[in-house]
Specification:
The chain is α/β, with parallel strands linked by helices. It is 31% helix and 16% strand. It contains nine helices and six strands. The protein is globular. It starts with 10 loop residues before the first strand and ends with a helix.
Length: 196
């Protein structure tokens, strides 16, 4: 399997960095992916939408849930802007169906981390040890609307997030590799990138 070259360092890259964007051939890497309901993940979207694909951590991750609740709360606004969401977890479909099965965007399980490796989505102790993520850990764990905890999640707890905004022609318009677990685009940032 080909591996996408991760840009040096972390953070965002936009369409201004065309060389990196061309290397992110997510259409090829996602062509065999299926969501947790058994449907093919269409990358790029056949309905001409932009695709916002997020690589998250494990099914019961309170930090991931905290972030995704902001997307759930603004789903109609995001969908109205022509953006289709696809979220990848390194958990099994069975685990994901218990909570993420209710989500209005596509959810894909990748417990063997094949998609993570092909897109150079990495792990690091800084995912949870960085002081910048501690407020999100606390808030996520105190939230009432969250999945049940898992003592030993598949793929571990040290995953870093990554996300890509993909145009209908398959070109990656923007990408972001997080430096810690709660380092990702907000809804407003995603909408701004879609309008750019």
């Amino acid at each position: 399997m080909d591996v996408i070259a991760r840009p040096s360092g972390s953070g965002s890259i936009t369409s201004a960095n065309a060389e990196v964007a061309r290397s992110l051939n997510l259409r090829a890497h996602m062509k065999t992916a299926r969501d947790i309901h058994g449907f093919a993940a269409s990358i790029p979207a056949i309905d001409r939408h932009l695709i916002h694909i997020q690589f998250r951590r494990f099914a019961s991750c309170p930090i991931c849930n905290l972030h995704l609740q902001s997307f759930i709360g603004r789903y109609l606004e995001i969908s109205g802007a022509g953006i289709k969401g696809v979220v990848v977890f390194h958990s099994s479909d069975t685990e994901l169906l218990l909570w993420q099965g209710q989500f209005r965007f596509d959810v894909t399980g990748d417990p063997q981390k094949k998609l993570y490796r092909s897109c150079s989505v990495e792990t690091s102790v800084s995912a949870i040890l960085s002081p910048a993520v501690w407020p999100a850990i606390l808030k996520g764990n105190l939230a009432k609307n969250k999945p049940a905890k898992t003592s030993s999640p598949v793929g571990g707890r040290l995953g870093l997030p990554a996300e890509f905004l993909i145009a209908p022609d398959g070109v990656v318009r923007a990408a972001h590799y997080g430096r810690r677990a709660y380092d990702q685009w907000s809804v407003d940032e995603g909408l701004a990138l879609a309008r750019a």
